[in-house]
Amino acid sequence: MNARWRQLWQARGGSVGGKAAQLVAQTYAVTLLGLLVGITSARSLAVGERGTLALLLLAGQLFSRFGSLGFEQLLQRDGLTRFRLSTFYAAAGLGSLALLPLMWAFMQLTDLPRVLVLSTLGAAFVVAVLRMNVALLTHLERFRELFVLNLLQASLQLLLFLAVFTTHRYEAFYAAWLAAVALAGGLSLRRVQPYRRAEGSRQPLAVWKASRRYASVAFPETVIAFCLELPLVRLTLGEVSAGLYAISNTLTNIYFQVFTALSAIVIRQPLRGRGAIYLVVALMGLVMALVSAPLTALLFGAQYAGAAAFVHWMLPTTFMLGVARIEQVTSSRLVPFAWQGALVALFCVALGLTALLPPPSLVVPYIAGCYVTYSLILIGLSRWGPVRPGSPSGTRT
After folding, report:
1. Domains of the chain: which residue ranges?
2. Which of 23, 63, 147, 161 is surrounded by the most beta carbons within 10 Å?
3. What is the per-residue pLDDT for 372?
4. Which spans are transmembrane here (predicted)?
């Protein structure tokens, strides 16, 4: 019987749907451990301090994404057929350095200690290296190694957070996060060591040029995944609301993991019949919305129950952005980079106008509306935009 089940699993794992299901299952196993990490910091820190910690973690991860925008998708699709792994690292390092003035401005805007800008720069590069190594393992379909690596990272962070639990200080949790990221980065380098000798281009700027195709989907996904609007929420609604919003972002990110896993597979092997998949994922979002209030209070404490109101607004937003991601990475239509830049610029301007909204009750609905509008435009361009040279009209690659 065990042999029969193993044969069925291997047969299913060889299909696109099976690979996606396997990756989703592994992702959620690690995500549950990551949820314990979030619960640990929420139980130890006051709501305001939890918001400050969220901003510090946001800074390192956010600038990591912006310093290597689209690199993950490029690695997931092409692996090392075009560029050496060291070239990706160099491009990410240059991207992080270029963003140093913005890191400083971020610290000023959010009133965080300026001295932490250097740790933010280091964290941004290490997180970028970790993400690229994970993307390469995904391309190679080394799902078991990927699962072990992610599990070790989440376990390290949980253990270090538990070690500083009694300090009740966000500085201690931030130091623990930095240590966990550094250790995970070192482990990931060991996992990809056999592939670092692969031949390819040594020009970092060429990586940026090749990754531009994915910029318009990677940008808003990065914003919502790492809660770029958190400083706006803190500015308009206050420190406590920022802490609640950070918790709601934890729950919506758990939901978004389904789209992350799906796109990592379908970027190379498009999956037909996506409408049914979208319906199932939408129903999952509805269930999460219904249980978000009691679940938030149970997991994070009664003081965070107000986060459920933010979850209700941001779950549909997360769904639409996930659909836009799947549609773009599987589309045969190439959105011109000038259009992508204009779309991203308009999105940033619209999001920035949040600070000018007088009624606080409109802030989160307006933010959600910005994301949904952007997603709908991107879906439209992916379906009816200009055809990529060499791709027949109406086909999927």
Report:
1. 12-384
2. 63
3. 92
4. 20-41, 53-75, 87-106, 112-134, 146-166, 172-192, 276-298, 304-324, 336-357, 363-381
